[in-house]
Amino acid sequence: MDQELLFEELYRSYWKKLYAFCYAKTKNHEVAEEIVQDVFIALWKRADKIVFSPKTENYLIKSTRNKIVDYYRAKKEQQTTTISQCTLCDEKGFGMDTVAHNLAVDEFLEKDLQLLVNQLPCRCQEVYRLSREKHLTTSEIAEQLNISQKTVKNHLTKALSFINKHLKVV
């Protein structure tokens, strides 16, 4: 099969699925479209090596997932630069050592934290939120979710490890 026809077939077969996957992760139509287009552009650049196989879908999903991670990294770097320059402090006319600055930093970190929590697996998110936002104990969470306390602790360890790894405090 001609490589161009194969590429078109791959695009028609997987564009909607990749877009839906991407939109579910980003909640932004424009970003989702751009990421999926980037995946197919990268694929087109390697058009001479395209082979249609059962693994093609896995490859496309993994490529899309990697682009989503790149998007969030870039977004985080942009936010980190913004907070380190603290343009909010400049605009409001207060110094970086004031209470107002500390509140601005807290608001920034809370948004960043919520982005990270939203990236956790569903059950892990649920356990984390019950623990940190609802202030439930391990045993209360276990009882409410009908899981063992050990499982609750494992979810919390996983969540905190992920957050600590990805949250940069300025």
Automatic annotation (TrEMBL):
<dbReference type="Pfam" id="PF08281">
    <property type="entry name" value="Sigma70_r4_2"/>
</dbReference>
<dbReference type="InterPro" id="IPR013249">
    <property type="entry name" value="RNA_pol_sigma70_r4_t2"/>
</dbReference>
<protein>
    <submittedName>
        <fullName>RNA polymerase sigma-70 factor</fullName>
    </submittedName>
</protein>
<dbReference type="InterPro" id="IPR014327">
    <property type="entry name" value="RNA_pol_sigma70_bacteroid"/>
</dbReference>
<comment type="similarity">
    <text>Belongs to the sigma-70 factor family. ECF subfamily.</text>
</comment>
<feature type="domain" description="RNA polymerase sigma-70 region 2">
    <location>
        <begin position="10"/>
        <end position="76"/>
    </location>
</feature>
<dbReference type="InterPro" id="IPR013325">
    <property type="entry name" value="RNA_pol_sigma_r2"/>
</dbReference>
<dbReference type="InterPro" id="IPR036388">
    <property type="entry name" value="WH-like_DNA-bd_sf"/>
</dbReference>
<keyword id="KW-0731">Sigma factor</keyword>
<feature type="domain" description="RNA polymerase sigma factor 70 region 4 type 2">
    <location>
        <begin position="112"/>
        <end position="161"/>
    </location>
</feature>
<dbReference type="Pfam" id="PF04542">
    <property type="entry name" value="Sigma70_r2"/>
</dbReference>
<keyword id="KW-0805">Transcription regulation</keyword>
<keyword id="KW-0804">Transcription</keyword>
<dbReference type="GO" id="GO:0006352">
    <property type="term" value="P:DNA-templated transcription initiation"/>
</dbReference>
<dbReference type="InterPro" id="IPR014284">
    <property type="entry name" value="RNA_pol_sigma-70_dom"/>
</dbReference>
<dbReference type="InterPro" id="IPR039425">
    <property type="entry name" value="RNA_pol_sigma-70-like"/>
</dbReference>
<dbReference type="GO" id="GO:0016987">
    <property type="term" value="F:sigma factor activity"/>
</dbReference>
<dbReference type="InterPro" id="IPR007627">
    <property type="entry name" value="RNA_pol_sigma70_r2"/>
</dbReference>
<dbReference type="InterPro" id="IPR013324">
    <property type="entry name" value="RNA_pol_sigma_r3/r4-like"/>
</dbReference>
<dbReference type="GO" id="GO:0003677">
    <property type="term" value="F:DNA binding"/>
</dbReference>
